[in-house]
Amino acid sequence: MASSYKKNLSRFQSVIALLVLCIVLSLLTDKFFTAANGVNVLRQVAVNVCIATGMTLVVLTAGIDLSVGSVLALCGAITAGLLKNGIQFPSADLYIGFTILGAVLGSVIVGGLLGLMNGLAITKFKVPPFVATLAMLTIARGFTMLYTGGHPISNLGTNFAYIGAGSFIGIPVPVWIAAIVVLLAVFITQKTKLGRYIYAIGGNETAAILSGIRINRVKLIVYSLGAALAAIGGVIVTSRLDSAQPNAGISYELDAIAAVVIGGTSLNGGKGSVWGTVIGAVIIGVLNNGLVLLNVSPFWQQVVKGGVILLAVVIDKMGDKKE
Amino acid sequence: MAGFGIITRPLTNRSLMLEAKNISKKFSGVTALSNINLVLHPGKVNAIIGENGAGKSTLMKIFSGVYTQYEGEIIYNGKPVKFSGTRAAEAAGIAIIHQELNLVPYLTIAENVFLGREITNAIGVLDKKHMNEITKLLLARLNFSANPDIKVAEIKVGQQQLVEIAKALHCNASVIIMDEPTSAISDKEVDNLFSIIAQLKSEGKTIVYISHKFKELFSIADHYVVLRDGATVDAGDMHNTTQDRLIQKMTGRDILLQKRSANFKDAAILLSLKNVCLRHPELKSVNLLTNISFTLHKGEILGMYGLMGAGRTELMEAIFGLHPKNATGEIAVEQSVKKIKSPCHAIQAGIALVPEDRKLQGLILNQSVNTNISLTVLQKIQQWGIMLSNTKEKELTASYISRLAIKTSSGNIAAQSLSGGNQQKVVIAKWLATHPKILLLDEPTRGIDIHAKSEIYKLMKLLAAEGMGIIMVSSELPEILSVSDRVLVMCEGDLTADLPINNITEQEILKHAIYKN
User: Fold this and answer.
1) Do A270 and B366 touch (CB under 8 A)?
2) What is the distance between the alpha carbons of residues B197 and B502, in angstroms, rounded to a whole number?
3) Is the ipTM of this complex over 0.95?
């Protein structure tokens, strides 16, 4: 009994850490424990939750995706470009316009294809995930610059702005989107064959191959999903700012990886959960928010964030050793 | 052990160089060596002979300081010694050349020879010139004229071996242990190696030579020690013994175990292989398997024996579709030729493979027993075409847990917390769940206790009685003899014998498994 109690404790240690953090911040500041601030924090973490959810799937297969920040920027720019300018073929005197839904779908598909390319490099050409997605980080950023000419694409209309800035029953739309993404990902990881295969590949790739699992197919799906979720993040960011910034999303991959790691997912794969990542992302969000409320300088904020990541992993490793 | 007078009566009058006294070694309760007593004669080539798992490597690892936890005593130059690690053994003059060479491929020959004991000048900078010169001299002693500045990855395996020997010479080793030194080199390189061994001998070095190849042993060795099941069973002068005697000592069992006696000649053919070949994935001219043809009948248990490196595992992998690019030949299941290019195809064709290493290949250790068992048949526990049903999964796995008597407090326990035997049962369960017609078992009882072994044998017989065809790869002759209906023997990638179980002996099987040049 004692050991199962300990196991449960370790499973919920990130939740406990989050609760402790919230209690401390509530005691230290008046503004933290208010509905308005809560909604604010959730809105701020929504994009990272989307990206980090995709990252969790990738990391569970013992992979990594460094390209999500750039993919976010490129897909955000494509959404804005399609909405504002459509696709023009001056030579054929042809113009294709896009509705909001069309533009969003278009950019998510582009995101998925970029992820597919990551996956192909990793499975067919045996490029290590770190290198393949590092290359994509640069490539996608380059295409973002080419597509936007280095300038923001702005004034996208009030209807589009609803996605990033609007609310539904008092809760920001990005939070709804993140919630749907999380629920879908939880369903996939816990309740489907694909989910089992993701854990199996990360847990023991050789055993997975010998069990007849088509591991290349699973990896292609996982990297495509990860990039498509980054594209959704791009849509939200673009909508909230009413502008696609060519340098959007820089270092977002690091925040996503931090959320995954703080949430207890092992970078060696096979161990972790989407729920953990959500908690990890919220911990980072609460920490950012609390440090601002406490008037801590942005420079110190970074130091503290780094310390928390390190602490989370150290605690996790200590738990492993005891088992 | 006192019966081996030869051990305590050295043939030379010089002081005994290396001696083992009552050495015992256990791995988590399993005895690997028990009361080993032997003497390595100085300035001679001492052959260590034994079946796979007899304890040869374990003993060598104790001599060379790899294993530091053991019972008993090593006497070296007349004094008891206890090495704290490989460095200590090397400093004392004992060097080991492992079967898989221990060189860093992208360092140069000289850098490898000096690895860990680099020569530096007064301010700590590497003295490359000096090291290259010394290396050149060392290589010259081995009749190997190579530039010490080229990378080890660029020279042949036989030459890499010479680098290892140079390394041993450089630390002034007086005992050089060679573990299967000829397993990966050409005949010409073998001749060269033998002349070097003769030269080292004339310099007074003691050579310990481990090999399965009797022809080599008779031409190079002066003395021999036979190990069986972790104990010394014979020792003596190589020139006063015969191959038959050594084989008899290696197996040591004249008693025939209970055999099955069914005849399957008229039973339906489940699996047939025709001229299956497998190329080495890198060295395209080397064949890992050459023209393997045989059949497996319904209800038959086929034992497959061979020494290490005979190609048994590779054959199982080729049947299971793990070498789509390098395997050729024809594989037919129930008389219809199948293209098996992946494990997926193999499963569809009704083939299952329980791999050699359950921890590295069979299980996802940190996941539950249930998850491991259902992994091969997730489509069977789906509902509404997409969602996995916990209820269906529990039904499925509970039936296998009870059928195979897997000892676990619940199906939700992580596979890693089970005992070896129960882990193996989980791997078998996961494959039985696919309802295979053909079950390939690669060393199914390695490292598990006797009780679990007998349970697995019982299960195999039951499955065979139900009509499954089983191929069991094993390195244990008694197991082969007691479980199989027919025995295939492999050696160096060839199928060397297809023997009915009636009236065959371990010696006969072993004869076919030993390399004849």
Assistant:
1) yes
2) 43
3) no
